[in-house]
């Protein structure tokens, strides 16, 4: 279970980072498309710096990044409620990925996601209510 918990936490962190990166890239692309060449050059130059960030906040962020991942991300949390919540979140992520798949693959993808969720919840001891 500890390994499953770590994998799911890592997957969630990766998904969040990927979504943040995609949103940042999308916003940057829109800003570049609508701005003049001069304004785009200025935005690009400032985007890589902390010029728009409060210096106190920038220092705090630098300290947090230097420390690395928080230890709580790697602590085993065997609470049933937490494990069920993580399994539900993993199911939802899998279903969202299935919805983006081609229509021909969608049904089997959803069935596989549901089967994985049911198999993992069975390992917890008692099945979760259907979603």
Automatic annotation (TrEMBL):
Residues 27-47 have a biased composition (Low complexity). Residues 1-22 form the signal peptide. Residues 27-79, 98-131 are annotated as: Disordered. Keywords: Signal. The keyword Glycosyltransferase does not apply. The keyword Cytoplasm does not apply. Residues 66-79 have a biased composition (Basic and acidic residues). This is UrcA family protein. It comes from Massilia oculi.
């Amino acid at each position: 279970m500890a390994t499953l918990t770590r994998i799911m936490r890592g997957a969630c962190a990766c998904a969040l980072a990927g979504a943040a990166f995609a949103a940042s890239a999308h916003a940057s692309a829109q800003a570049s498309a609508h701005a003049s060449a001069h304004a785009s050059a200025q935005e690009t130059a400032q985007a890589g710096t902390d010029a728009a960030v409060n210096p106190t906040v920038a220092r705090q962020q630098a300290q947090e990044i230097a420390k690395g991942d928080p230890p709580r991300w790697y602590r085993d949390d065997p609470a049933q409620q937490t494990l069920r919540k993580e399994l539900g979140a993993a199911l939802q992520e899998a279903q969202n990925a299935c919805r983006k798949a081609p229509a021909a693959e969608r049904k089997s993808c959803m069935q596989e996601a549901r089967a994985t969720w049911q198999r993992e919840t069975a390992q917890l001891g008692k099945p979760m209510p259907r979603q």
